[in-house]
Amino acid sequence: MQALLEHFVTQSASYSLIAIALVAFLESLALVGLILPGTVMMAGLGALIGSGEVNFWQAWLAGIVGCLLGDWISFWLGWRFKKPLHRWSFMKKNKSLLDKTEHALHQHSMFTILVGRFVGPTRPLVPMVAGMLDLPVAKFVVPNIIGCLFWPPVYFLPGILAGAAIDIPADAQSSGFKWLLLTAGLLLWIGAWLCWRLWRSGKSGSSRLSQLLPRARLIWLAPLVSGIAVVALVAAIRHPSMPVYADILVRVVTGNPQ
């Protein structure tokens, strides 16, 4: 599917925008988003934005439309088919995740809808479960719109940064700068993930990952990796190639690739 999508988006800018809306829609659609590698696809589409092949603002709008359609169809499906969905074998197999989502919606509905959009396993579940719980539309609409506004650029960002880096003119310094950017990006992601694991460590069960990364280890590992990531980021910012890279990013965001 990903190879077909890549072929599709290279045909024209219009096809690329349709592909962005489609990926955002499917990634947000009830249960479909659980099996779709939407995060990877959004990053890949972000690379087209970073390389100047797709307009940033048009891509953002297409992503918003796809998100809203996916979420509201999921909400309606949950509301319309709540009883059959509860009896479905797939839902019974994922009862633990479903129960956690229901509990979060009962306790903090607006916060859960907003944050759930940015968390992979819950993104295609929260709108559907909100519909199954007969959550009032007034409580769903505001956090849903806010989430759909900000989700596309966040998930485009890794691809945009990578696409813009590719366009840096080749010279003796640019190669090292690209590797430095990649290292800083990976370390920042790992550091953020370790910090999240540390925050969740009091609530984690006895999974294999929890045994590999117990709280005692996370207490020193998370700040260590985060500190190294910050050092790598500062080194990238101070690199002579950074002004060229920043100029490319500005032109991408302003929609002026030339």
TrEMBL record:
It comes from the Bacteria. One of its GO terms (cellular component) is plasma membrane. The keyword Transmembrane helix applies. The chain crosses the membrane at residues 12-36, 56-79, 141-165, 177-196, 217-237. Keywords: Cell inner membrane, Cell membrane, Membrane, Transmembrane, Transmembrane helix. Pfam families: VTT_dom. It is a multi-pass membrane protein. It is found in: Cell inner membrane; Cell membrane. InterPro entries: DedA-like, VTT_dom. Residues 36-159 form the VTT domain. Signal peptide: none annotated. PANTHER family: INNER MEMBRANE PROTEIN DEDA-RELATED, INNER MEMBRANE PROTEIN YABI. Belongs to the DedA family. This is VTT domain-containing protein. It comes from Superficieibacter electus.
